[in-house]
Amino acid sequence: MAQVQLQDVHKIYPDGTKAVRALNLEIQSGEFLCVLGPSGCGKSTTLRMIAGLEEVSSGIIEVDGQDIVGTPARERDIAMVFENYALYPHLNVFDNIAMPLVARRTAKPEIRERVERIAGTMGICEHLTKRPSKLSGGQRQRVSLARAMIRSPKMFLMDEPLGHLEEYLRIELRREIRALHEATGGTTFYITHDQEEAAAVSDRIAVMTDGVLQQVGTMADLIDRPVNRFVAEFVGEPPISMFNDVAVANGQIRLGDYSVALPPALNRAVDASPPVSVGVRPGKFSIDDAEAEGLSAIAQSVQLMGEWAAILCDTPAGPATALAAKSELPSEGARVKLNPDPEGLLLFNKNGRNIVSAEV
Amino acid sequence: MSQSRAARRAAFILISPAVLLLLALNVFPIGFAVFISLRHWSLSIVNPPRFAGLFNYQELTLDDRFINSLSVSATFVLIAILAELVLGFALAFVFNSKLKGLDTLRKLSLLPVMAMPLVVGLVWFYMLNENFGVINWFVTLFGAERLPFLTDSTLAMLSIALADIWQWTPFVTLVIFAALQSLPEYVFEAGRMDGLTEREIFWRITLPLLRPAIVVVLIIRAIDAVRMIDLVFMMTKGGPGGATEVLPWYLYTTGFQSFDLGYAGSMAVVMIIIVTLGAQVFVRQIANPEKGR
Amino acid sequence: MFRKMMKENIRGAACILGATCLAFGASIPAHAQGVLDGKTIRILGIGDPVFQVMQQIHGDLEEIAGGEIQLDVRPFDVLHQQVLLNAQNDLSNYDLIAVDLPQFGEYRPFLTNLNPLIEENDYDGSDFHDVAWNGAQFGGNQLGVPLQPHPEIFAYRTDVFEKYGLDAPRTHDDVLAAAKTIEENEADMSGVCWNAARGTPIGQSFIMTQGDFGAAPIDMVKVGDDFDMGNIQPENMKPTIDTAEGEATLNYFLALLEVSPPGILNMAWDERVRVFAQGGCAMTYIWSGRSAIYELDEDAPARGNVGYVSHPSGPDSPNRSTLGGWYLSIPTNIDPDRVDLAWNVIEWLTSPEMIAEYTKHGNCVAPRKSVSADPEVIARCPVIPHVNQMAEDGFLQGWQRPPVPEIQKIVDVLGAESHQVLTGDKSVKDALASAQRLIDREMRKAQYY
């Protein structure tokens, strides 16, 4: 399996748009790497440059130590799954899946055997003679996956493969994709804008915005140690509460009508780089009743999410989101106190950098 | 039950204008052609028309000129359509590439389509004329002998085909080009990812996806080419010998110069049958290969 | 049933058309004492020189006539159709129609007998050449007045002939011999231009050349050297194509092919005269009226260097040139109230003054003796006295193209079959047999025999 290294890769379109800037990224052999980012962040462009569908403006893309910039797509031995499936509308499912083998001049009996085997794996045996237009979205994406899997490519590129599917199908298919990844042991580069999906399938997640890579790490890294405000705000569901009215004094940080003592490490960092905003993950708030110590809040709305609920509050410091177990929900409009976990405070300086990470 | 009958009656009333129009515009003229073809009917004879049975059709089977005109028509259609398709295709791909200046060229290329076929025939007649044609003037500039473009059997057929190709290739280009533009880019990307070469992509993906456009353009051009008469009228009058006497021209001279309407009518009926059958077979076999399998 | 329906419709259309024309005509002030006197005359013409001249000077004509002249000029085939369709109407859409000499046979039932009008108006036709005047006479009835009757004759370059000491060609052998001499000595000049294009051009060449051998395409009664055209009976309709004369005709064509300019197989009326005018050939067959093409063109090498003879003949046959061209006739279904107007316009358009006027604009035809003697006219059109002489010598005849309804079919069949002989696709024998069979079939279909 392939190890992929992107070194200082730029992509500038003829109209001057800088789609990807100074991208350095390593994908380990056998790794499942997700790229997460809002639309237009350059993640698709990156994938297409690896695929060979888009030219690289400058920089190097190495696969197993070999620069593949300039190599035509078909010689890169990389399989791709498209968001819109990109099936050949004029061919039936069998011929669609067989195309990569046909292109490699595989013998007919072998093609038949391998197509049937992969179709069995993907559960689409009964559709082999149908045209793609006769299939549902989920079935189409299975065909598309089967087409990518039928040969053993150096790596798989998946461009939001589940983007057009219904929720329940997404959950079912992402499990299968992960299983297939493990079964084949391939290297997978996977693009999504759905962080839950990214967390479910990937080993590591890369976050991009405006053509710039922000952070690479596990989901836990991104949640607990975001490098900057963008990552902190983009990743995490429900989203982080961000307070911009911040004052630090005597090892204490004041949020609205409440001050929290900073942990010693954080307190030291604050001296070098004064924070301008503070983020608190919903899970890092504990909800106490109105008489307790804490940040005064009015529970404006309660959004139930399974066993947990997100409580959207108004506080003197600004809006905040907290999590509460289903059994202990405050009623809407109730006055409560929010108590942030000091270890969970994320401080950002005027450049938006996380003060702790900035120091590291 | 009675409700469905009422509904059926309403449906009948609603479609009847369309059906009547269809009858008036399509069925009646064809029926009239059949009616004429079963009579001796000559405008130029003072005798009134009289019933002839299948006489005219029997004559057709004996008429070398008619049989020759069928094969001339077939030859013309094959040459012209094949060349127009291949050239039109190639041009469409050139236009589809993103070269500069192609926009103007693309617009200019449609000029021949807008010309009247009679005028096109006249222009080519004068250009190919042996005595004062500009093309033969060029030929002699290079020290070559003047070429009998319109008086040699093979050259005359090619000359007429050339004029037709000149006029109609842009139309083929236009249709194929439009179809090319509407093909989704991702299919080609999938092909490249699957390891197909550009040539394989053309044969395995582009061409099959263009099939509907090709079929449409082929049917339109084929029907048009079968009916072509203007170029023959202006350029060769069917000569030399009968080398360019296409069926419509023989039909025209019979019906409208000699006023042998009955006989011309029988030719028209045969022509309608050939065109209809041809289109049927064509649509079945080429347009919809899945059903043929 | 259908025909009747069509008739009704056309009658309706004709009434509307007539009404508008009358209303329109009435609105024109009678500002001149012209022949029309504020009325409108409706003429169906042909795209040939004489009607094209009328189009050119249309404004002047209306001025002179003091009324509107509605002149519809149509190509030959379309005119033919229009005349036949118009004949089916209860009321004619035209007051005057152009009739080609060989068409009288076909149109006879649709044309007004002019004899009463001639008597009533004391009209004198004797100024016309007899052959032209009598050409429109059938069973003693005058069916048309000559407007532009002219023969197909033979033109040759006098300067070239002098250069090689050649005499004016009187026979086919003369033509071929002269052509050979000239082709051997002149690099860019071919021998003979003629109508060899497929269809009507070579079909007409065939019957006129068959006439050079003293034979007609159908079995008419021979009177002296010529045939009786005034009284053609059904038994005279048998084709006489597969005959010794027919064979001689095709053999002459094959011989001509050797001395013809390039592109001869596509050459017709217009091109042969133009190539001749530019010096591409030393001789040409030509409808005499078309000589204006080079006589009026100051740049044409042929201008002023052309001699004219009637069609050169085959062995032991008299020189005969086919007379053709256009007459003015009145359809039988004309509105009776308009007959006098139509006649007056005929008199005017065929008057000596008008005939002389046409020659000024490229129509070198003068069927009137008085006009063909006019020195000014002769200066413009050197061909006219030659044609005059041929008429007096009795060289101009119409029987080569008998006035029978099937004439176009005959020409069409011959036009297809002869061309195949010239391209080598068919033998002379096969072509003659095939043409004979096809025309015979046609005559049987028309139930002549």
Most strands sheet of chain C: 9 strands, mixed
Estimate the helix proportion of chain B, in percent. Answer: over 70%
**β-strand amount of chain B:** under 5%
Q: Just name the CATH architecture of the largest domain in chain C.
A: 3-Layer(aba) Sandwich
Helicity range of chain C = 40-55%
Number of domains of chain C: 2
From the 3D coordinates, which CATH architecture of chain B would you assign? Orthogonal Bundle
Q: Span between N and C termini of chain B? A: 42 Å
Strand order of the largest sheet of chain B: 1-2
| Large-scale geometry of chain C | globular
Which consecutive residue ranges of chain B, at least 5 long each, have pLDDT under 50? none
Q: What is the tally of beta strands of chain B? A: 2
Q: Report on the biggest sheet of chain B.
A: 2 strands, antiparallel
CATH top level of the largest domain in chain C is Alpha Beta
Per CATH, what is the topology of chain B? MetI-like fold
Mean pLDDT of chain C: 87
Cα-atom Rg of chain B, whole angstroms? 24 Å
Tally of DSSP helical segments of chain B: 14
Order of helices and strands of chain B: HEEHHHHHHHHHHHHH
Model description:
Chain A is α+β, with helices and mostly antiparallel strands and 360 residues long. Chain A has helices at residues 43-51, 93-103, 108-122, 137-149, 167-184, 195-201, 219-224, 229-234, 264-272, 355-359; strands at 4-12, 18-27, 32-36, 58-63, 66-67, 78-81, 155-159, 187-192, 204-209, 212-217, 241-243, 246-249, 252-255, 258-261, 277-280, 285-289, 295-305, 308-315, 318-325, 335-340, 345-348. Chain A has 2 domains: 4-231, P-loop containing nucleotide triphosphate hydrolases (Rossmann fold, 3-Layer(aba) Sandwich); 237-359, Nucleic acid-binding proteins (OB fold (Dihydrolipoamide Acetyltransferase, E2P), Beta Barrel), CATH 2.40.50. Chain A has a 6-stranded mixed beta sheet, sandwiched between helices. Chain A has a 5-stranded antiparallel beta sheet with strand order 16-20-17-18-19, with no helix packed on it. Chain A has a 4-stranded antiparallel beta sheet with strand order 2-1-4-5, with helices on one face. In chain A, a hairpin with a 2-residue loop joins strand 13 and strand 14. Chain A starts with a strand and ends with a helix. By secondary structure, chain B is mainly α. Chain B is 77% helix and 1% strand. Chain B has helices at residues 2-37, 55-62, 64-96, 102-108, 111-114, 117-128, 134-141, 153-182, 185-193, 198-227, 230-235, 247-257, 261-287, 289-292, and strands at residues 39-40, 50-51. Chain B has a two-stranded antiparallel ribbon. The model of chain C is unreliable at 1-33 (pLDDT under 50). The radius of gyration of chain C is 22 Å and the shape is globular. With 449 residues, chain C is α/β, with parallel strands linked by helices. Chains in contact: A-B, B-C. The B-C interface holds B 32, 40, 42-47, 59, 64-65, 129-132, 146, 148, 150-151, 153, 236-243, 245, 253-254, 256-260 and C 2, 77, 80-81, 84-85, 106, 109, 197-201, 261-266, 271, 274-275, 278, 280, 405-406, 408-409, 412, 416, 419-420, 422-426, 434, 441-442, 445-447.
